[in-house]
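@channel sequence for tomorrow's demo:
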Amino acid sequence: MSAFERVKLARHLERPYTLDFVERLFEDFVEVKGDRRYAEDPAIVCGFARYRGVPVGVVGQQKGRDAKQRRYRNFGMTKPEGYRKALRLMQLADKFGRPVVTFIDTQGAYPGIDAEERGQAEAIARNLFEMSRLKVPVVGVVIGEGGSGGALAIGVADQVLMLENAVYSVITPEGCAAILFKDSAQAPRAAEFLRLTAPELYRAGIVDLVVPEPSGGAQNDYDEAARLLDAALWESLRQTSALDPAERLAKRYKKLRALGSWDTLK
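structure tokens (generated this afternoon):
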């Protein structure tokens, strides 16, 4: 399967979203809304729940399933108040000693003028900084599109899991093609250059585990997709929870500092 074919699978309109996994993996989910500064952002879902009996904080980007939902959820493109809501949830989880699970699924942060006026870049940067300092275990899961800073803002984690047909990249293939080749139709070529697939990112050390999907993609069987993710997620939480906070922070710092290493091609 080509890189761009995986991009199309990651964007599939019937692919399971955050709330689909919340429904199947967690119990007693109680949603937290609003950033207590400006507004509620439906593009990102936050709340507390129980995962196999363990209290956890849950954060995830949520796309809409139909036209009405997509407008309501802003196509999963988060605004500053959404990232501040996520940070509010994570800081509460840190205060009460609850691990944090994040579900990444966005083409990118919302680029509108109003979002920029309210400090989009600062909100993303603040999340990166604060997530790096959380004392509780943090596990991130790329379930669909992981686009640019919009994804990174909830992606600083002790372990990052990635579904087999998800993608994770600094820019969309279309955006990259428009910049490099002056032609967005060259997106399939750009997708190969971006190295955005789960196997390639695993080899590069960007993600820690590739989670298999049901045959043909996660959209074909939500229950099986959740079952496969459940096993991987539980093991990741078990490993990170076994560390004391100081050791966990040191390992997280070492992991983040190792990102971006490169070699000259021979």
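heads up for whoever presents: The radius of gyration is 17 Å.
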